[in-house]
Amino acid sequence: MNRKDKSENLNERKEQAMHGGGERAIDKQHAMGKLTARERINKLLDEESFHEYDLFIQHDAREFNMANKEMPGDGVVIGTGTVAGRPIAIFAQDFTVAGGSLGLMHARKITKIMDYAMNMRIPLVGINDSGGARIQEGVNALAGYGEIFFRNTMASGVIPQISVILGPCAGGAVYSPALTDFVFVVENVSKMFITGPEVIKTVLGEEISMEDLGGARVHSEITGNAHIYSQNEDECFSKIKQLLVLLPDSNAEKAATVAVKNPKPEYSIKKIMPVNSNEPYDVREVIRAISDDSCFYEIQELWAGNIVVGFGRLEGNTVGFIANQPLVLAGVLDCDSADKAARFIRFCDAFNIPIITLEDLPGYLPGVDQEHAGVIRHGAKVLYAYSEATVPRITVILRKAYGGGYIAMNSRHLQADFVFAWPTAEIAVMGPEGAANIIFRKEITEATNPDEMRKQKVEEYKEKFANPYVAAGRGYVDAVIEPAQTREYVLHALSIAKNKTVEHPAKKHGIPPF
Ligand code: HXC
Question: Which CATH superfamily is domain 3-244 in?
Fold first, then answer.
């Protein structure tokens, strides 16, 4: 063959390999409202930036007459490219080839791109669309998953890892996404479960659809396994791009600084707090009133809504916001919200992202359900995660800061760098009503008008403790500030904390209350 023929031969081979499972399988994929692996990659990456590797890989399935079966690329596409000009590594399982099932070489491609991502210290995006372990390859398929899980764990806290569930992700395969930092799901497309409907029917005799068992809504609202929900794949890719630009490439860097934009005037912080201290308000309004351009990228928006977590920017730099949400369950801490906050704190800390905590917390959710679900263990995760975090940590107490919740929400006592309080702050061991009932029980029961006496004692307690000045008097609060001064104080604190250095005692690792 001369040089021209060789080039033509390469092009032919490429075209064939890139055709995946063929016309019919691609049509079936599209008919299900799904894109193909390469279409997905091109949607996410900057135009023409994708460089594919291992296009000509040969599969290793030999049993069950598989040796001569065509499985282009062994059902997965891997490569590198850029998002907003910054490099990422990516793999996308190709459902059109043997249902994207994972065999030995398929797994080797994934682990190869994971190793690239780790060695080059760039984010990894994995698009999952697969029937799971390739049944015909037996233990080789299981081995492949093990190799992936190990790498997910090693990469944790070193490079950002994003999983996108765009089809089935069944059986043990779910543990790769579960080990990564952010899981994206899409309505009607994502299906994620350990044991499928067939097994449930056989073992338990119960009928359930894949959607009801482990669809996008289930994982976004009930289990908390998913972090970002989208209505369709286009929306999903646009949200991944927005997240990637907020994050650093690795734990050795800080997120990129962008041009400063002031908060939008419609988010006036003065108007947000209700006059009555038991009335709810949306704490996201406070976040938007503080953050650059009033932008807030919320994580796990549909799950454990009593705490709000997500990213914004302050003076062009990425920060993580954690805020109690009075709109949901009055903003109490419970098992799920504690898990949500603790995990987010650890992500921010691992990737050099300062944490801003906005506190309005009446305490922990009381009840047998919570106690028996392990609220002690789950709640402890928040204390552990804050205490261990060495990034700049700033707390603003907006209103209630009662009891254990006061300590947990990045108090001075957990070594917060700065604690500010609004004049509306109420820092006390418990709410005034509960406190008055306990410490003035005798006076109240013996009074000729117990209701009147209770009211009087509640007021007395409020006067004495439900304000920021007792804490400020001990230096637990650094400054009592007007709400309108919040951005200015937080920006100044961040600039002071820029070179914060904290050394922990030498140890292999701590033992967090997992
Ligand atoms: C081999 C598989 C496969 C698998 C699908 N295919 N899953 N081949 N191993 N695990 C093949 C099908 O045979 C079919 O091949 C093609 O992919 C498309 O599959 P369909 O069934 O036609 O597609 P659909 O109707 O959309 O159903 C998708 C599905 C279903 C729900 C994923 O295929 C399914 O239930 N697959 C098995 C899921 C499963 O139990 N996997 C093992 C989990 S255990 P043809 O040639 O007909 O096109 C596991 C252990 C991992 O993963 C442990 C790690 C620790």
Answer: 2-enoyl-CoA Hydratase; Chain A, domain 1 (3.90.226.10)
Q: What is the DSSP string of 289-327?
A: HHSGGG--EEESTTSSTTEEEEEEEETTEEEEEEEE-TT
Helix or strand run (H / E) with residue 184: strand 182-186
Given this model, what pLDDT does residue 332 score?
A: 96
Residue nearest ligand 1's atom 32 by CA: 131
Tokens 């709400």 locate to 483
Which atom number of ligand 1 is nearest to the Cα of residue 134? 9
The answer, yes or no, to whether any atom of ligand 1 lies below 6 A from the CB of 142, is yes
User: Which atom, in ligand 1's list, is nearest to the CA of 141?
Assistant: 51
> Would the CB of 132 count as within 6 Å of ligand 1?
yes
pTM here is: 0.96
Report how far apart, in Å, the C-alpha atoms of 235 and of each of 19, 37, 169, 240, 242 are: 25, 16, 20, 9, 11
Q: What angle do CA 476, 479, 481 make, to 5 degrees?
A: 135
CA angle 271, 275, 279 (to 5 degrees): 100
CA-nearest of 283, 255, 251 to 269 is: 283
What's the gap between Cα 157 and its chain centre? 13
Helix (H) or strand (E) segment spanning residue 443:
helix 441-446
- Domains of the chain, by residue range, sit at 3-244, 269-429+466-497, 432-465
* One fold for 3-244 and 269-429+466-497: yes
Q: Which pair of structure tokens corresponds to residue 353?
A: 């992202």
Under 8 Å between Cβ of 75 and 106: yes
CA of 332 to the centre of ligand 1 (A): 43
- Tell me: the pLDDT tens digits for 281-328? 999 999 999 999 999 999 999 999 999 999 999 999 999 999 999 999
Tally Cβ neighbours within 10 Å of residue 144.
23
Q: CA-to-CA distance for 512 and 514, rounded, in angstroms?
A: 6
pLDDT of residue 464: 85
Per-residue pLDDT, 43 = 97
Question: Which residues in the chain come in under a pLDDT of 50?
Answer: none
Could you tell me if the CB of 170 is within 6 A of ligand 1?
A: yes
CATH architecture of 269-429+466-497: Alpha-Beta Complex (3.90)
Report the pLDDT value the prediction gives residue 408, as an integer from 0 to 100.
97
Residue of the CA atom closest to atom 51 of ligand 1: 172
- Which ligand 1 atom lies nearest to the CA of residue 28? 26
